[in-house]
Amino acid sequence: MRSARRLVTGRLGLVGRASLRVALATTVVVAIVYLAVGGAVLGIVSNNLTSQIDTRLTGALAETVRRAGGPVTGSSEVHGPPGDRPFGPPLLLWLVDADGTVHSNTAGATLPDSAKSVTSPRTITVGGTQVRAVGTTIQGYQVIFGQTLDQVSEAQSTLLRAEAILGPILLIVVFVGAVVIGRRVAAPIELARQRQLEFTADASHELRTPLAVIEANTSLALAQPRDEAWYRRAFERVDAESRRMRRLVEDLLWLARFDATQARPASEPIDLGVIAEGTADRFAIVAEARHLSLTVRVEPGPTVIRAPGDWLDRLLGVLLDNACKYAPEGGSVAVGVDADAARVRVTVDDSGPGIPVAQRPRIFDRFHRGTDAGGGAGLGLAIADAIVRATNGRWRIGESPSGGASMSVSWPGAFGDTRPSSSAIRVDESPVEQGLS
Q1: Residue 389 · residue 280 · CB < 8 Å
Q2: Cα 130 to the chain's mean position, in Å?
Q3: What are 84-99's pLDDT values in tens digits?
Q4: Which of 53, 101, 118, 277 is the most exposed place for a label (fewest CB within 10 A)?
């Protein structure tokens, strides 16, 4: 058991490390995408702001040409808003004479020689400051309007700061989210895969034992002639092992179909008292063979629930089979059905050794047997638990009045809530019921 737990823990550790690698790769991809998107946003914003400045400059230039009444050439044909808009940075103005003399409306704003003939909007440097400029010729003068790009630079700085702050936060959230989601998704898959491997290994082991017995008996029978009594005993052993193997295969097929099939059989109103009496009647011969006292008690009141009838029959068959196996020779098995205002309950008590408290959390594990007494492959209670879970039942495991095991299952009444739920297992460790996680 400990080695199996260590194996599962190791598998989950591998899942955790794989999740970290996947999360790291996801974070790198997101970081690259974030940088690309951030760069694109920065470029779009810068272009939009520059375009707005160009529109203002060409509009101011067109308005100046209109007022001067001079010739219009080049970009001055662009009609835009007036150049004296009250809100916005002040415009720079340069007039260039025919002899190259430059006049400016702003002290210290020296126009570079390379910009004296500017016409279409472009960026120039004036006194160490980037300026967007556009110009045209009016009555022999080169008129140039300009506006600093401080607005664009401030917007770029603001965006870069925001991206620098949000970027690490986003990447941390992505990394942590990828790790958490990866583990949540991968861990159940890995556990299911591990359980499937263990299930296959256990099934192979359980099938190997009867096959080995059958093979040994047939080999000995063929090795040399035997007397009639020897052959009878050999066939009896082969028959017993064949029956055991058939029961195991049937249980495996039932569990495989249950796991693979999403749809469940249609539920119908079933009288639990009638099912309990019918199942007990089938086991009467088993109890008689072992000199067991088998009693059935159905309390007055409604004992109808909604569930597939054949499933309930199989569930009670598992409980009675276990009770008859573990009760000592001459012991007792009692089946009780009762109901209260909300639930209907069936209880199977026996006078056997009981179920140790330490074993109760694992009694529904497939191929788990608390003891080798009674034989079996350890699939009966796994099937019973699957039925209880699928029919919205609830377990209660405790100690019978005679000191043996007491296994009880309750369901909502026939007109109660019949939605599927996880089976809640309750264990009696004291007179007060205690929930088992």
Answers
A1: no
A2: 55
A3: 444 457 888 898 888 8
A4: 101
Cα–Cα distance measured from residue 139 to residue 69, given in angstroms and rounded to the nearest whole number = 9
CA-CA distance, 31 to 43, in Å (whole number)? 18
Phi-psi region of 305 (alpha: psi -120 to 50; beta: other; left: phi over 0): beta
DSSP state of 362: G
Q: Residue 200 is encoded by which pair of tokens? A: 């296959």
**Distance, CA of 343 to CA of 299 (rounded, Å):** 13
Give whole-number Cα distances, 121 to 50, 56, 102, 332, in Å.
10, 11, 19, 104
Number of helical (H) and strand (E) elements in the chain, helices listed first? 7, 14
Do residues 108 and 114 make contact, with C-beta atoms less than 8 angstroms apart? no
* Phi/psi-derived region of residue 69, left when phi > 0, alpha when psi is between -120 and 50, beta in every other case: left
Share of the chain above pLDDT 70, in %: 79
Tokens 């520059």 sit on residue: 50
CB 63 within 8 A of CB 82: yes
What does the pLDDT average to over 197-215?
74
Q: What is the pLDDT of residues 148-179, one digit of tens each?
A: 998 899 999 999 999 999 999 999 999 998 88
User: Amino acid letter at 385?
Assistant: D
Tokens of 68: 């001067």
Q: Which two tokens stand for residue 391?
A: 């029919």
Helix (H) or strand (E) holding 29: helix 2-68
CA 121/CA 146 separation, integer angstroms: 9
Q: pLDDT of 111-121, one tens digit each?
A: 888 888 888 99
What are the backbone dihedrals phi and psi of residue 139, each rounded to the nearest 5 degrees, phi first?
A: 50, 50
Most confident of 157-161, 311-315, 339-343, 397-401: 157-161
Q: Which residue in 113, 104, 144, 109 sits closest to 130, CA to CA?
A: 109
- What letter does residue 91 receive in the DSSP assignment? P
CA distance 162 to 179: 26
pLDDT digits (tens, 9 = 90+) for 208-247: 777 888 888 888 888 888 888 888 888 888 888 888 888 8
CA 213/CA 189 separation, integer angstroms: 37
Beta bridge partners of 424: 394
Among 26-40, 171-185, 302-316, which range has the highest average pLDDT?
Answer: 26-40
Say how far apart CA 437 and CA 424 lie, in whole Å: 8
Cα 411 to Cα 394: distance, rounded to the nearest angstrom: 7
Given this model, what pLDDT does residue 420 score? 43
State pTM to two decimals.
0.52
Let me know: does 52 contact 121? Beta carbons within 8 Å.
no
